[in-house]
């Protein structure tokens, strides 16, 4: 069977909980054999779960509660003391029917309205705050930023909807999302930061949004870096190189344009400060930005 890529943040979450001695069960609607063969591709994962249960080990699959009731029983826990993390609607229903708390991480973007029975709906596993559920907090956030494996993308600056500068006073040098379709599915939408290179001009700090801009409800995903520098002219068509080094927050909706703009300025300050930290600053000299 092919290796299935793990979701962004999955490995980090599992290792964190394992490290802190939090008992975990893996409960899936696929067969036990199928789970075993999939998990074998991820080194160290199997050992993290004290219980693994497949659809073939209970009478009824999700959305019935059976699988989570059985998982709780084997963990020796009351379901009310368990937290289920689910990506599917039937899975959320099964967790609630079993009496657990449920966090939904929808596998299909823009479908959050289908998951309303969950206790919380988050955009990606990067957004889990374990302390909100009585679990030990992550310790890898640095000054309100989460370091990620650096991600390199580049291409000519394209035209967007033309509202960055005009409506928000925040110009963003858009890259074509189509050229990065496969990378974009691997990376959750959200607000990130890093370094931007314009080979004929220089290297600049940048803070960016990747996603559907919920405030404007775009139909297409956009990649929009705001270069933290005052330019005297536009640079449409010029080659732009980005090294994305950290994550700040999921994209959000806002009740007013002013609150969206204020939040983006807050993001700018977070990025500006973080990029001076050695662990992020070291990418500034990467030849990818200037070649
Ligand atoms: P669009 O919707 O076409 O992207 P914007 O209003 O977002 O329009 O304007 C972006 C353009 O402004 C960029 O393509 C770039 O040429 C220019 N620009 C000027 N200053 C900046 C900056 N600091 N960061 C990003 N783009 C800038
Ligand atoms: N748009 C949203 O709808 N929600 C957001 O949370 C959001 N965050 C952003 C953060 C940054 C750092 C930047 C540069 C843009 C963000 N935007 C967000 C996108 C903004 O709506 C977009 O740049 C404009 O629509 C111009 O295309
Ligand atoms: Mg733009």
TrEMBL record:
Encoding gene per record: LOC104718183
Pfam family, one: Flavokinase
PANTHER family linked: RIBOFLAVIN KINASE (PTHR22749:SF6), RIBOFLAVIN KINASE/FMN ADENYLYLTRANSFERASE (PTHR22749)
TM annotation in the entry: none
Its EC number(s): 2.7.1.26
Alphabetized UniProt keyword annotations: ATP-binding, Flavoprotein, FMN, Nucleotide-binding, Transferase
Span of domain Riboflavin kinase: 146-276
NCBIfam families per the UniProt record, alphabetical: HAD-SF-IA-v3
Domain of life of the source: Eukaryota
Protein name: riboflavin kinase
Pathway: Cofactor biosynthesis; FMN biosynthesis; FMN from riboflavin (ATP route): step 1/1
């Amino acid at each position: 069977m092919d290796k299935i890529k793990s979701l962004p943040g999955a490995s980090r979450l599992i290792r964190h909980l394992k490290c802190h001695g939090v008992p975990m069960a893996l409960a899936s609607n696929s067969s036990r054999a199928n789970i075993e063969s999939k998990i074998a591709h991820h080194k160290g994962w199997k050992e993290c779960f004290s219980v693994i249960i497949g659809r073939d080990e209970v009478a009824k699959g999700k959305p019935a509660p059976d699988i989570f009731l059985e998982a709780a029983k084997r963990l020796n826990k009351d379901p009310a003391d368990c937290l289920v993390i689910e990506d599917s609607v039937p899975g959320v229903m099964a967790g609630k029917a079993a009496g657990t708390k449920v966090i939904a991480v929808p596998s299909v973007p823009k479908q959050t309205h289908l998951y309303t029975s969950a206790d919380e709906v988050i955009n990606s596993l990067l957004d889990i705050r374990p302390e909100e559920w009585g679990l030990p907090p992550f310790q890898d956030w640095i000054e309100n930023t989460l370091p990620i494996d650096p991600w390199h993308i580049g291409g000519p600056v394209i035209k967007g909807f033309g509202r960055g500068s005009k409506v928000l006073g925040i110009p963003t040098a858009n890259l074509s999302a189509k050229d990065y379709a496969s990378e974009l599915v691997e990376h959750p939408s959200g607000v990130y930061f890093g370094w931007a290179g314009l080979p004929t001009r220089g290297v600049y700090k940048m803070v960016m949004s990747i996603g559907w801009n919920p405030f404007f409800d775009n139909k297409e995903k956009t990649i929009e870096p705001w270069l933290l520098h005052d330019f005297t002219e536009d640079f449409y068509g010029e080659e732009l190189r980005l090294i994305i080094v950290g994550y700040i927050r999921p994209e959000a909706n806002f009740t007013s344009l002013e609150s969206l703009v204020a939040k983006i300025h807050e993001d700018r300050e977070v990025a500006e400060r973080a990029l001076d930290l050695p662990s992020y600053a070291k990418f500034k000299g990467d030849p990818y930005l200037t070649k």
